Amino acid sequence: MAVTIYHNPRCSKSRQTLQLITDSGSDHTVVLYLDAPPNGASIVDLARKLGMAVAEMLRRGESEFKEATDLPDLSDDASLAEWVAAHPIVLERPIVVNDNSGKAVIGRPPENVLELLS
After folding, report:
1. What is residue 55's three-state secondary structure?
2. Which residues are catalytic?
3. What is the pLDDT along the chain (118 residues), one digit of tens a residue?
4. Where are the domains of the chain?
5. CATH code for the domain defined by 2-117
């Protein structure tokens, strides 16, 4: 099984989730999304895999979100995804995708990833 983790090494939940993936022995790809943000279309695809709207993937407590003056309509997935691509710090983390099934989860709590690994 192969999984992809959208990882922020500064985040303890993201580190714990990566450790669970590593401990499982699953092949995995680590995407350091703050260094190489996914584009808008990829963010919309992640939302689809998670079964949620793009707005549900946001860390609304981040100052970059709270202080944004250019935030698009939260119900417009395409526009919001483009905005998130330019402000990746507001993307919830970690996001883990099972590359075989196309299903995804947010690793909060980290144990959420276990359903993808079984």
Report:
1. helix
2. 11
3. 899 999 999 999 999 999 999 999 999 999 999 999 999 999 999 999 999 999 999 999 999 999 999 999 999 999 999 999 999 999 999 999 999 999 999 999 999 999 999 7
4. 2-117
5. 3.40.30.10
Compute the distance between CA of residue 28 and CA of residue 94 in angstroms, rounded to an integer: 13
CA distance 27 to 74: 35
> What global pTM score does this model have?
0.95
Burial pattern 31-67, b for ≥16 Cβ within 10 A else e, equals bebbeebbebeebbbbbebbeebbbebbeeeeeebee
How far, CA to CA in Å, does 109 sit from each of 30, 76, 83?
18, 27, 26
* Token pair of 82 as six digits: 């483009």
CA distance 27 to 99: 10
